Structure formats: structure tokens, C-alpha cells
Automatic annotation (TrEMBL):
Transmembrane segments: none annotated. Pfam families: OSCP. Its main location: membrane. GO terms for cellular component: plasma membrane; proton-transporting ATP synthase complex. Belongs to the ATPase delta chain family. F(1)F(0) ATP synthase produces ATP from ADP in the presence of a proton or sodium gradient. F-type ATPases consist of two structural domains, F(1) containing the extramembraneous catalytic core and F(0) containing the membrane proton channel, linked together by a central stalk and a peripheral stalk. During catalysis, ATP synthesis in the catalytic domain of F(1) is coupled via a rotary mechanism of the central stalk subunits to proton translocation. This protein is part of the stalk that links CF(0) to CF(1). It either transmits conformational changes from CF(0) to CF(1) or is implicated in proton conduction. It is found in: Cell membrane; Membrane. The keyword Cell membrane applies. Keywords: ATP synthesis, Cell membrane, CF(1), Hydrogen ion transport, Ion transport, Membrane, Transport. This is ATP synthase subunit delta. The gene is atpH. It comes from Cellulomonas gelida. It is a peripheral membrane protein. One of its GO terms (molecular function) is proton-transporting ATP synthase activity, rotational mechanism.
Length: 270
């Protein structure tokens, strides 16, 4: 998102947070209704363009949203109307913002129930289990396969071994990829959890296990670099021949052997 959209999202989020706090365990219901709003926008380009058009009067757009969402929870109607009143750099940013609010609502339930750390751990275990599973990941991203079928595959993978909030997130990531790879969506939600827990997440990809001392040292280095607490998520990937790939948010530090070989090939080709 560009500056205007980021400012609009921040304003809507700030007003939505007290609503989520008071909703308690019902916050996830608000999230799932917001996902339905996102699906409606994704399925209708004309609706998305109208509601995201900065040249259309904000109150007129809010009335239209209210008419379309008449049967929804009033709290969902209110936040959707708040969102369409804002200015967005691109109409796609409106749907992206509402999806983020939906995930925030689902995570607010886990936070209310004291299970946010559990959801974070479960999503990370799911991510780690899917590393290298190319056919499964391809299926979870394949738009030619119905969303319900992709969500059903997630259910089979989880096999009842995850919390309800984790299952909601994992199913949503599969049923509506919105152009993102499945693991990318799980990573996005992981970043939202880190924000709610006031921490950064560093994803470390390595070919071999890191000792506790190595992890502590790496966390200390990153904490000093970023000035805040760092949660390390370590992923073992046999395709990494050596070194580490460290990703914190959008920043990537890649010192793996494969990265250096690829760089050497580019230099030779150039």
C-alpha cells in the first residue's frame, strides 16, 4: 500500500480495535463476515471500483455499503462503511484492508482467550510441515480447484490437531488465496500476530538445526539491529546447502550457499 492507503488503514484499524476488544470470543465471527465482504469485492470489479473510487462521495459509498450489507452484523457494517469513506490509492487496497481487518478480528478472539501464542506456534508448525511439499502447495494455490476443496485439504492436514482460530486462518488462506501463495498468506498472518504481540518475527531458513546458544546469539544480534524483541522461527530446508536466510518483515538477508552460487552464475552470464 502507498501512503494514502496506509494512512486510511491505520485510521480504520484504530477505530476498530475497541470494537474487537469488546467482542471477545465473538470477534472471529466478525472476521469471517469481513472475509465475505472481501469475497464480494473480489468477485465484482465494478463494485470494487465504485467503493474504492476517491472521486465518489464517501457518504454515498457508505450508504451503498450499508444497503449491500444489511443482513450483516452491525459492527461489520460500521467498519465497512468507515473503510469506504476513506481514500485509497488503488481500489484493490480497499479489499486488502478489509481482509487485514478480518484476520485481525479472528486473531482478536485468540488474544481474548489467551491463545495467541498457541495460534502463532500452530501456524509456524503448519508452515514448517509444508516446506518442500510442492504438490500440496501447488494444490492449495490452484485457482482451478474450488476453494472449498482446498479448505478441505487443509482440514485433512490439520486433522483436528489445531485450535479453532488456527483452523479458521488456515482454511481462509486456502479457500481465498487472492493471488498469494499459501505459505505467503500464513506468513502474513504471522506478521499480524507479531504486531499484536509487539514483536518482530525473524524467519530463519537453514539446512541444519541451530543450537539454543546459536539461536540466542542470533536473536540478540537482531534485537540490537531492530531495537525490539525478536521471535525466531527456524525452518529446516534441505535445499539450503549452507549459511542462513534471514527474513524480517520485507527485509531479507540471504547468505546461503545457493544464493552465492546463483549470484556467481549471474556474474558469469553478464
Amino acid at each position: 500500500m502507498r501512503g494514502t492507503s496506509r494512512a486510511s488503514l491505520a485510521a480504520v484499524e484504530e477505530r476498530f480495535e475497541p470494537v474487537l476488544a469488546s467482542a471477545g470470543s465473538a470477534a472471529s465471527d466478525l472476521g469471517e463476515q469481513l472475509f465475505a465482504v472481501v469475497d464480494a469485492l473480489d468477485s465484482s470489479g465494478s463494485l470494487r471500483r465504485t467503493l474504492g473510487d476517491p472521486s465518489v462521495d464517501g457518504e454515498a459509498k457508505a450508504r451503498l455499503a450499508g444497503q449491500l450489507l444489511g443482513a450483516a452484523d452491525p459492527r461489520v457494517v460500521a467498519v465497512a462503511q468507515d473503510a469506504v469513506r476513506q481514500r485509497w490509492s488503488a481500489d484493490a487496497d480497499l479489499a486488502e484492508a478489509l481482509e487485514r481487518l478480518g484476520f485481525m478480528a479472528v486473531l482478536a478472539r485468540a488474544e481474548h482467550e489467551g491463545a495467541l501464542a498457541q495460534v502463532e506456534a500452530e501456524l509456524f508448525r503448519l508452515t514448517r510441515a509444508l516446506i518442500g511439499q510442492r504438490e500440496v502447495n501447488r494444490t492449495l494455490y490452484d485457482s482451478a480447484i474450488p476453494g472449498d476443496a482446498r479448505a478441505g485439504l487443509v482440514d485433512a492436514i490439520l486433522a483436528g490437531r489445531a485450535s479453532e482460530v488456527t483452523a479458521i486462518v488456515a482454511r481462509r488462506a486456502a479457500s481465498a488465496s487472492r493471488g498469494r501463495r499459501y505459505l505467503a498468506t500464513l506468513g502474513h498472518v504471522g506478521d499480524l500476530i507479531a504486531e499484536r504481540r509487539k514483536r518482530e518475527v525473524a524467519t530463519i531458513t537453514t539446512a541444519s538445526e541451530l543450537t539454543s546458544a546459536q539461536q540466542d546469539r542470533l536473536a540478540q544480534i537482531l534485537r540490537q539491529a531492530y531495537g525490539r524483541e525478536i521471535q525466531l522461527n527456524v525452518i529446516l530446508d534441505p535445499h539450503v546447502l549452507g549459511g542462513l536466510r534471514i527474513q524480517v518483515g520485507a527485509q531479507v538477508v540471504d547468505s546461503t550457499v545457493l544464493s552465492r552460487l546463483a549470484d556467481a552464475r549471474r556474474r558469469l552470464a553478464g
